[in-house]
Structure prediction request, 573 residues.
Amino acid sequence: MKELTSPMIIQAQGLRKTFTTRSRKGAQTVEAVRGVDLGVAKGEIFGVLGPNGAGKTTTIRMLATLIAPDAGTATIAGHDLRKEPAQVRRNLGYVSQAGGVEDTTSARAQVMMAARIFAMADPARATAEVLDRFELTELADRPGRTLSGGQKRRVAIAIGLVHNPPLLFLDEPTTGLDPQNRANLWDRIRQLREAGTSVLLSTHYLDEADALCDRLMIVDHGTVVAEGTPSALKREVSGDVITLRVSEPERAAETLKPLARETRVDDDLLRVYVDDGEHTLPALLRALEERGLGLTSIALDRSTLDDVFLAKTGRSLRDAGAAV
Amino acid sequence: MIRHTALFTGYELKKSFSNPIWPLFGLMQPVLYLLMFAPLLKSLTPGGTTVDALRMFTPASMMMIAVFGSLFSGFGLIAELRNGSLERYAVSPAWRPAIVLGRVAKDMVVLVVQAVLVLIGAAAMGVRIGAVELVLVLLLMAATGLFASGLSQGLALTVRDENGMSQTLNLFLLPIMLLAGLFVPISFAPDWMKFLAPVNPLYHAVEAGRALFDGRLGDPSIPIAFGVFVVLAVLTTMWSMRSLGKIAG
Prediction:
């Protein structure tokens, strides 16, 4: 009955998970998730954004009943994660990073098997419907290994949705896809929202989180560093960012401080966060000229989620991702 | 529980037969053994006729198929561990042991078909066996296969790596094969081998199989073999079912 009263489909508090790996160098512990609170409202697309190794997949796997959290509680679709894992699974579609599409069997056979496991009244019809919805009917009888990356992704999601779950988990859904397939998949994920399915998706792509998510949280080193709607998060940092390439970035930063909300030096790049870029630009150029600072290039952009990440963690998400 | 096990058994069987070439190759193997090994063994057998050789070699080949065919079936599980489909089943309402039991059951079905082929081949070459003995031989083969299949699934879920798995299997296969007297009966072996052979469970299965093909129903090797393999099959199947819990890692 809880499902009817609560507007939230996932509510998790204080999730923690520590892994111990044994190697020749002895036991090592990795605190993958260090106290994550998370709430997903019914019908929304909620994103978990962070670099590789931030604890996104571990969080999703805990919520999907695959690994038991060391601490914390969660209620999913009205059921307690620890006490009623079977009920949680029944309400869940789960598409892992690997996808789970088998090589030797056809897409139809795999979707049909899922429909049978979920005890659908008419597995053949449910299969045909979901294959049609993802435009897979023509590919449905080919073995999995003959499908392209984008097609495989669609099959994976079709398998996860055949039982019409109220909640779908997508772990890094577009990793490894070309831009065209990514855009196509984004459209399909948006259609899920229209159909009323709640989606929890993890990603390390800024543009993906920005384009798809109603709300998102940014995670780093197993903790939540920011949470909100993409626009609110960006507003929090500042409206615009002016990126300058100058001869003496440190001195330039000092000069521009009165005009900016925040300045940040990154090698020979200077980022100046301002509320209203268009109107600040003339004053900024004047100030540089008065001090005789040489300017090589200048760019004005709306701030992105990467600027949010940078402001919260002190490093760029692109660098953080590459470092792992 | 039973519904899910049946569901997975059917799914695995369909997968096995979706490309009928591979199961056909698998089915050919026992017949080829029979055709090619029996003539070689003729001079070794006491009676010296083909039928005598077959009576000795047919039960051995059946047990061999049971062990070898099933021991390799775990490789499929490693592939599914990697492509994520096992994880997907673990997050479904499927009764988890059914995921493994379905594969074990599929192996049993394949074994029975292979056994029937071997028996038809042997019968065509003149070997006769009583109805009770026939049923017992099939049951013993099934228990042996169940043990090997359970072991293979458990090993796959523990080792999680094709390379490690094939090395582990190869390490054990040769001694198990030789110490069971599959091709050459242990009675020809030196004393230290005779001493070691009873430690090898397969030795008991082969001895019991030969007793059954000779029509010696009262032979003590038969209850010993059944006792050993029922216990081992239960143990390995339970191990494989528990190993499934480690999917999450």
About this structure: Residues 2-248 of chain B form one domain.
